[in-house]
Amino acid sequence: MLTSILGARLSWHFANGWVFEPAIEMGTASTGTSANRSPFKRAEFGSLIRMAISALSIAAGIATASPVFAGTERGSQNMADTSDAALASSLPGDFRNGYAEVNGTRIHYVEGGKGTPVLLLPGWPETWWEFHKIMPELAKRHRVIAVDLRGMGGSAKPGLGYDKKNMAKDIHELTQALGYKQVNIAGHDIGAMVAYSFAANYPDATLKICLIDVAHPEESLYTLSLLPPPGHAVRGTGESTHPVYLWWFAFNQLPDLPQQLLAGKSRLLIDWLFDSQLRNPAAISERDRAIYAAAYSQPDAIRAGNGWYQTFGQDIIDAKHYGQIATPVLALAGERNYPYLCELLPTQASDVRVVKVNSSSHYVPEDQPEAVVRELLGFFKS
């Protein structure tokens, strides 16, 4: 998850006394011009009950520690229900699981629906499943393809190639393999970076792009403030006025150590990130969290996720050659990142509209899926 660049940049801005004025509320638009930047209770029920509780505790511990555990709602589903194929078929819209060999790697995707193609690109620490709340509605009007990026979920985890330009090439070759000459793309977090790079490098293959709460890496990343001043808690609250200090940006730069610390324990990190940033922590359920923890439990998966961050320097260099893209851009911003995107995106695209999604955090598709569906359907309407 890249709690947006803005989460970090705002903390720096707060420290320096900068103030941003909101320019747009949900459903209103801003044209991209430089002028507008602006716990269990213990109960004595006898030895039988105590034995049962112990057995359940042991089973839960095994499930949590197991690297192949895919996560379930407690007591409601079995582990097989959370394979990618089962998850895909559980969604309305005749979704199916697929794989493609592209750009020297294997990419996993889930597709369903009919109409103009819309690709959905997720972010860290999630998978294609982050879009499961919005996919069925989109599929009523579009062919929806939700993709696990290089290194994510069901996709391969090669040692190299995590710069966003190369990841955009993955997506371009995927669209070609699926038979599409032009596509719409909506990306969140790391996926938003790849979506922008796709538009910059393959303009003729791009219809429109939507960037959800994140922009392509740019040089302000080098100025991120990671040390909170006295009185500022590192753990967030989900409220837009609470600064976020993006310590994981630095943590993900480290070689080897993240795998050693997080292998089999990724759920700890995932819960911290979601609970400290979601406006409504229940928006990402117990089952969802277990799915994501399983996806990032293996050392190779952790390493690959680190790779998306370790290539930011190259991404910044690449962006200097892009200039302003002409592709129509819609940005759906959580409350915290809205001012940052209003300021930055007009420098990266000539046709941009930034929409603030009220009552949403960085995880906009989970916090406010109805709003995301409404905006995407309107934007991608032919």
- Bin the strand percentage: 5-15%
Low-pLDDT parts are 2-78
From the N-terminal CA to the C-terminal CA, the straight-line distance is: 31 Å
Structural class: alpha/beta
What Rg is obtained from the alpha carbons, in whole angstroms?
21 Å
Mean pLDDT score: 83
Shape: globular
Q: H/E series, N to C?
A: HHHEEEHEHEHEHHHHHHEHEHH
Explained architecture:
The chain has 382 residues and is of the alpha/beta class. It is built from 15 helices and eight strands. It has helices at residues 5-15, 47-65, 84-89, 135-138, 164-177, 190-201, 247-251, 257-262, 266-277, 286-295, 299-310, 312-319, 338-348, 364-367, 369-380, and strands at 96-102, 105-112, 116-121, 142-148, 183-188, 206-212, 329-333, 352-356. It has an eight-stranded mixed sheet with strand order 1-2-4-3-5-6-7-8, sandwiched between helices. Strand 5, helix 6 and strand 6 (206-212) form a beta-alpha-beta unit. The protein starts with a helix and ends with a helix. The model is unreliable at 2-78 (pLDDT under 50).
